[in-house]
Design brief:
The chain has 148 residues and is an alpha+beta fold. It has one domain. The protein is built from 4 helices and 3 strands.
Length: 148
């Protein structure tokens, strides 16, 4: 599957679920899925991860646009790399765009996955974290191969 297809699927899933949450729940409402362990909780985060740097909308919009621009510039190189790098780049791009859409449209990001021991997050956040983990792992693995 191509980088753009993975990114597009992640963006579509992220935005569809966020739209459903916003249309069917009240802000602050929490629905237990596994009581005390996992809830669907509708919040709007004006900051970055864990609510840091709240109300810095334009900083996050510029950062998101930078990620999209960098992916565009590096697309040819990324498409010629290994599968793990392509997957990581696709997930990172899709997650960044998913949250960028929220920031442009609402000025904040819709979060809803609530495990009660971690700040509430969303599908785009998962894409960003897993994408970065894939890229780091691929870089570390390739670095090990070069030292051998």
């Amino acid at each position: 599957m191509s980088v753009l297809a993975v990114s597009f699927f992640l963006i579509l899933a992220d935005q569809a679920v966020k739209l459903g949450i916003a249309r069917t729940m009240q802000l602050g409402e929490s629905i237990p899925v596994l009581q005390g362990i996992f809830h669907i909780t509708y919040i709007e985060n004006p900051g970055a991860a864990f609510g840091m740097f709240a109300n810095q909308r334009w900083v996050f919009i510029v950062a998101g646009i930078f990620v999209v621009f960098a992916a565009g510039v590096m697309y040819r190189r990324i498409s010629e790399t290994g599968r793990l790098v392509r997957l990581g780049a696709a997930l990172l791009l899709g997650g960044a765009v998913g949250n960028l859409i929220d920031r442009i449209r609402l000025g904040r990001v819709i979060d809803f996955l609530d495990f009660r021991v971690w700040p509430v997050f969303n599908i785009a956040d998962i894409g960003i974290c897993v994408g970065v983990a894939c890229l780091i792992y691929a870089l570390m693995r390739d670095g090990e191969k070069e030292r051998e």
